[in-house]
Structure formats: structure tokens, C-alpha cells
Amino acid sequence: MLVRSVGTLEYEADIKRLLERRLKIAGSEKIKLNSEENGRISATIENDEELEKWCGSIAQLLLRDLAHLEVARMVNELPVSLSEKHMILPEAINNAHKAERNFGVTRMLVEHFKENPHLNLEGFMRFRMKDVLAAWELCVDRAAEEWMLKKEYYELMGILSAFVRMQPPRIKEISLCLNPDGSCTLIDDEKSRIDYSSCAGDGVVSVLVGLAPERIIVYDLSGGKGEGLSEALLRVFADRIRFYR
Q1: What whole-number distance in Å separates Cα of residue 178 and Cα of residue 195?
Q2: Which sign, positive or negative, has the C-alpha torsion 87, 89, 91, 94?
Q3: Whole-prediction pTM value?
Q4: Residues sharing a CB contact under 8 Å with residue 145, sequence separation 6 or more, in sequence order
Q5: Does residue 161 form part of some domain?
Q6: Going by DSSP bridges, is the β-strand pair 184-188/193-196 parallel, antiparallel, or unpaired?
Q7: In the sheet that 33-35 helps form, which strands lie side by side, from edge to edge?
């Protein structure tokens, strides 16, 4: 029989509640947690099987729950504005979850608790989980890069929208059909037709900006394949466009 505990001096989280949830998911509700006066969360471990489940639950606490706090810390260190950090954080956390691996954390925890009665969570994270932190940093960097590309895209759409508003309409109406196979077709009010094998890319937007129609009617039969083009058209042409789905 062993009494083992975990604690934190940095993480602002309800460790007991989170760990209870992880133990429940692991089917180990019979491992009861106690709150100590020093802020530590302790448990009595009866055997090796319980030790394995205790360590597995702490591994999930670190890799899933406290990952949010570590990723948030990394995002906060990025040299971008606060509003941009708010945009980057959800994608960074999502990337971290997609890249999740155990990294042998459970095994390291078992080895630790066989020799030590207590675990400081942030200490273990910083000194024993360096590979995990490095992976999360890559997730944050990727999220930041994706946001910057998206920001540049939004800025370009804003410039095109301003250009469209400044020039007078050259033709009355254009119909755009987004087809189920991902292709699309442009038809002007004189029944001239342009077929595109793909709705992706900026080609359709560029042509429409050049034609400067007074009104654009979009028939979206793409089942979601033309979502990117639809968003771009809304950003550029705003109240000149009407969708039928």
C-alpha cells in the first residue's frame, strides 16, 4: 500500500476535479482522492494495477487538461497582438490534440512514483516532458503561420472589396453555378459562358472583379466543395451577391 500525491504551484486549475474525471474515464473510481492542507492531492494506492491506472490518469491530466494551459502560455509569448492571440489559441490547441501521443509519459510516471511519494506537475512537465513541449511549440507555430496567411488573405479580400465599390458596374448580372463535382460555371447576361474545372484558387474572383457585375447570383450545388469560393465572394462583393442553395 502506497500513499502518493500530486500538486502544483503554478497551474490555476482544479487539479482534484480534473484528476477525478480522468480516474472515472479510466474506470478507477475506487481510487479516492484527498485534499491535503498543503494543497496537494493524495491517494492510497493498493497495488501495481492501481498504480498503473493512477499514473495513466495523471498522464491524461498532463497531456489533455494541462496542455491547454501550456499551449496558452506559448501563444501568449508570440510577438502578436492580443486579439491575434485569441484567434491563434483555439487552432493551436486543436493542433496539439490532433498530434497527441503518449510519449511514454505513463511509464515515466510509474517509475517516478515507485521511488517518490509526490509529483510536482509543472516540474515533471518542464523537465521530463521536453519532447511533448517541443511538439506543442510546433503546433503553436503552425497555428500562428496559418493565422498570418489567413490575415493576409482577409486583407487582400478587403482591398478587392474596396476596389469593387469604387468602380461602376460594367454588366448587369452574372450567374455562377457551383457544381457537385467541384467545378463551376460563369454565365453573363448575354449567355456567354466560362467553365472552370475547379472552384479553388483566385481565378473566379479575379474574373468577377474585372467584370464588375452589378449583381451576382450563385447557385450552390457543390455540397460544401465551393465553401471557400463562396466566402471569398461574400467578402469581396457583399450586398451585390445572392445565394441559392
Answers
A1: 10
A2: negative
A3: 0.76
A4: none
A5: no
A6: antiparallel
A7: 33-35, 41-45, 2-7, 118-120
Phi first, then psi, for residue 131 (nearest 5°) are: -65, -40
Which contiguous run of DSSP H or E holds residue 196?
strand 193-196
Ranges of the chain whose pLDDT falls below 50: none
**Parent domain of 16:** 2-154
Boundary of a domain, candidates 91, 119, 154: 154
Q: Of 94, 123, 154, which residue sits at a domain end?
A: 154
| CA nearest neighbour of 176 among 206, 212, 221 | 221
CB distance 218 to 243 below 8 Å? yes
Give the percent of the chain with pLDDT over 90. Answer: 66
Note the pLDDT of residue 245: 85
Q: Which three cell numbers stand for residue 21?
A: 474525471
Spatial neighbors of 126 by CB under 8 A, at least 6 apart, are: 133
Per-residue pLDDT at 201: 65
3-state secondary structure of 31: coil
Number of domains in the chain: 2
